[in-house]
Amino acid sequence: MQAKLLFIAITTLLSTAALANNHGHNGQMEKCMNAALAKHPGKVVSLEAEIEKGRGAIYEFDIVGTDGKEWEVECEAKTGKVYEEELDVDPNSEEFKSKAKVTMEQAKKTALDKFPGDIESIEYELENGNPVYEFDIKQANGKEIEVEVDAVTGKIGETEEEVYEIGKD
């Protein structure tokens, strides 16, 4: 039942955005989605509304590109401008393994020491060519925090609080 409701929500969101764009609507979410798809043409498989420390409200789009690659594109909700693009990679890919100096277990400990909770998902990404671990952590208060740990230095990078998500993670 949840999968069916999720499918309906995504379909409604995407078709509404497409319809709105055909009528000249310039809403920021739609502007962000169009900017993300202009950078990486393909299919949006999820949308997250998040709050990033120091940046404020953002939209994050997961896109399966027409090139078969999976992209995470972040856009400022206020301006509608894309400011970050990350390529999802296999943890065993040469691109990731050859540069990573910190293990996933070390990165996981770093993230959980700062943001205690349960890890919901782990992603391996290249951010400007640099390997990054990304953890979605569900905290005891019910909030979900997205934490990036640099796979070279082991330091925490961006942290974002998820407001809502539509689509597959």
From TrEMBL:
Domain PepSY per the UniProt entry, residue ranges: 30-82, 101-156
InterPro entries, sorted: PepSY (IPR025711)
Signal peptide: 1-20
Keywords of this entry: Signal
Signal is among the record's keywords: yes
Coiled coil ranges: none
Domain of life (superkingdom): Bacteria
Manganese is among the record's keywords: no
Protein name: PepSY domain-containing protein
